[in-house]
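Appendix B. Raw example, untouched.
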Amino acid sequence: MGKKSSARILVLMGLFIALSVVGAYIKIPNPITSSIALDALPAYLASLLLGGKYGAIIGAVGHLVSATIGGFPLSLPIHLVVAIQMTVIMPIFGWISKKYNLIIGAIVGILLNGIVAPATFILIPKLGVPFFVGSVLFLILASIVNVVVACVIYYYIHDLEFTEEA
């Protein structure tokens, strides 16, 4: 990757991270936690436009910003785990969307972020099944909004040149 391409990627990553910060302020009201927001939307979009590894970074940073704004309601260690989960989900979402199609990628992204990732917290004391049951509907709703809006935006702008390889 040349200097021009590297600079372009860095600028776009900065833009997507800034959009994640904005999305972190758009919360999905729920009784469980103050960190469910639209911070992941730019990460999903970046995964499609720039690639999964860039979406992973943006997703992790976006979640940590959202958790910070919400006061780390589940504790810093739990939110670090969620940030790591985002670094895994974004490349999977991007890869499946490219390999198969956007609809299958969207379904997988929603399921991973809305159900699979939060299900891992069933094993954590003081969270467990009640946390999962209480939060899963709101997490699915947030995942649907984040993924679907990112996919719609991608559908309309994917022909624009974002990288030299595009």
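End of appendix B.
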